[in-house]
Write a structure and sequence with these properties.
There is one protein chain. With 204 residues, the protein is an alpha+beta fold. The protein has one domain: Peroxisomal Thiolase, Chain A, domain 1 (3-Layer(aba) Sandwich), CATH 3.40.47.10. It contains six helices and six strands, in the order ββααβαβαααββ. The strands form two sheets. A four-stranded mixed sheet has the order 3-6-5-4. A two-stranded antiparallel ribbon has the order 1-2.
Length: 204
């Protein structure tokens, strides 16, 4: 992820420290360690399944994205990497906020006159693993479909820098679209309170 990170110098009492690595990623994690974590609400709900290992981690971060017209990009000497094709916003009951991407994606795809099958890559922000599975079930995803979803991980493995996550996801999506020579990418997010956001991008 080095090409997605801008190094930041943090001054301290003992000098400066350059932060240039995502500190949330845990390379020493394993399936066995994750399976041993206790459900967060396990004392109150015997059916609870959400643990610290299958929920997004809260971490700090910032992101930036330049959105402009092609002519203005030429004036500034910028090379566009993607075109925003369409977007959609959906609302669901707050109790099922994680399913918000489903109506949002439907609106975004309808506006673009495209289908979910035409999306080469899909970034589905992971609030919880169960939330991803719920959306995938609504979309009737197969094992093959999952090969294009969160191919570099998402909120669970990379973390959820609230307020910056949308930009972080977009950076990961567009970089991977370039690497794979993919045409279309779909970014989705669920939002506490019952909203969902989705946007379709085309590599340029």
């Amino acid at each position: 992820f080095a090409d997605e990170i801008v190094p930041v110098l943090v001054e301290g009492r003992k000098g400066g420290t350059v932060v240039d690595t995502d500190e949330h990623v845990r390379p020493d994690s394993s399936v066995e360690k994750l399976a041993g974590l206790r459900p967060i609400l396990g004392r109150d709900d015997p059916d609870a399944t959400v643990t610290a290992g299958n929920a997004s981690g809260q971490n700090d971060g910032a992101s930036i994205c330049v959105v402009t017209h092609p002519a203005r990009a030429d004036e500034l000497g910028l090379r566009p990497i993607a075109r925003l094709v369409s977007w959609g916003v959906g609302g669901v009951p707050p109790a099922t906020m994680g399913i918000g991407p489903v109506p949002a994606v439907a609106k975004a795809l309808d506006a673009a006159s495209l289908t979910l099958a035409e999306m080469d890559l899909i970034e589905l922000n992971e609030a919880f693993a169960s939330q991803v599975l719920a959306c995938a079930r609504e979309w009737k995803f197969t094992d093959q479909d999952f090969e294009r979803v969160n191919v570099n991980g998402s909120g669970i493995s990379l973390g959820h820098p609230v307020g910056a996550t949308g930009g972080r996801i977009l950076a990961t999506l567009t970089r991977e679209m370039q690497r794979r020579d993919a045409r279309y990418g779909l970014e989705t997010m669920c939002i506490g309170g019952g909203q969902g956001l989705a946007a379709v991008f085309e590599r340029v």
